[in-house]
Amino acid sequence: MLYGTLAPTGVGSADIHPLGYYTFLWLWIKAFGESFVAVRLLSISAGLVSVTLVYLMKGLDTSLQQRMEPQDVIVHSNKLSMLPAMIFDHNLPQSFIGDQPGSRTDTLASNAQQVLRIKADSDIQSATRNAERVWFIIYQRSIEEYEANGFPIHPDIKYLDAEYDLKSEENWDGLRVFLYSKNPYHCEQT
């Protein structure tokens, strides 16, 4: 069967592919044709991307584990970098900044967050909570989207630049990792 397979369930048959798969497959076939190889390339491509992302996130996780200090926090700009990262070490102090209420982006429901044992913070200020050091993780594309919309700097980075000193910046194949340390001069001013 070209558009999916049926798996026996003991009572009948059930489709093993989610609806989104068929949507992507339909678009894929429109772009690349219906040959056996072209149709199978969608799954192969998705698998290769998944393996690459897992490898990337495992490397980043190992790097963070080696450099973390006891009072550090890791703040992801959104759930898309947080979800793969939590697979490797659920004990790292990680959170993500939740989507704005009423935004068009998908938000993890609070029940899903409870099951996954993760939490969303409402903004960068609450995510950092006076931490001495902050590891901020954001996709380069997110930074570029803000710049394309006329913002000179991503608002979370702007806040961190004002409240902390930037100690290091790394690029993990499109995933930017910033290390900030508390700015003692700023603390004296407030």
Distance between the termini: 67 Å
CATH class of the largest domain: Alpha Beta
- What profile does the largest beta sheet have? 6 strands, mixed
What percent of residues are in strands? 15-25%
Looking at the structure, the CATH topology of the largest domain is: Rossmann fold
| CATH-level-2 architecture of the largest domain | 3-Layer(aba) Sandwich
Helices and strands, in order, run as EEHHEHEHEHEHHEEH
The whole-number mean of residue pLDDT values reads 80
Q: Flag low-confidence runs.
A: 1-9
- Count, helices: 8
Q: How helix-rich are the residues, as a percent range?
A: 40-55%
Number of domains: 2
Structural class: alpha/beta
Q: What is the β-strand count?
A: 8
Can you walk through the features of this model?
The protein is α/β, with parallel strands linked by helices. It folds into 2 domains: 42 residues; 134 residues, Rossmann fold. 48% of the residues lie in helices and 21% in strands.
